[in-house]
Amino acid sequence: MNLAAGIPTNVFKAADVNGDSVIGIAEAIYVLKYLAAAEPHASCGEGKVFDCKLKCVNAQKAQSWIGDGYCDDGRYGVNLLCPYFQNDKGDCQ
Ligand SMILES: [Ca+2]
Ligand SMILES: [Ca+2]
User: Fold this and answer.
1) What is the pLDDT of residues 53-91, one digit of tens each?
2) Which residues have beta carbons under 5 A from ligand 2 (an ion)?
3) What one-character DSSP code corresponds to residue 89?
């Protein structure tokens, strides 16, 4: 069974916690645990959510950065440009 089939590349990127581009066992468990919910705004760990690029970010930070006047297109480490985060309430317009 090919567990990798159908799993978006960005999920693997989100799961690669140590940035070595290799998915270890702990990271694989993480992928399976959160795979079903791999969409923006869904949980990717305690106190964390996937941003619009499925990067795992601090949930409080993501929430408080919506409409704060700064454009969150990823330049500050979080991408909020999708309906799940109200398109950053127009901060990037
Ligand atoms: Ca890794
Ligand atoms: Ca913002």
Assistant:
1) 888 899 999 999 999 999 999 999 999 999 999 999 999
2) 65, 68, 70, 72, 88, 91
3) G
Residue 80 alpha carbon to ligand 1 centre in Å: 25
pTM of the predicted model, to two decimals? 0.68
Residue for token pair 């959160």: 34
Q: d(Cα 9, Cα 38) in Å, to the nearest integer?
A: 11
Measured in Å, residue 46 CA sits from the centre of ligand 2 at 22
Q: Please give the DSSP secondary-structure letter assigned to residue 76.
A: T
Question: Can you tell me which residue has the tokens 């440009």?
Answer: 81
Across 1-93, where does the E strand assignment appear? 43-45, 48-50, 56-58
- Bridge partners (DSSP) of residue 58 are 48
Sign of the CA dihedral 3, 24, 14, 43?
positive
User: Are the CB atoms for 80 and 65 separated by under 8 Å?
Assistant: yes
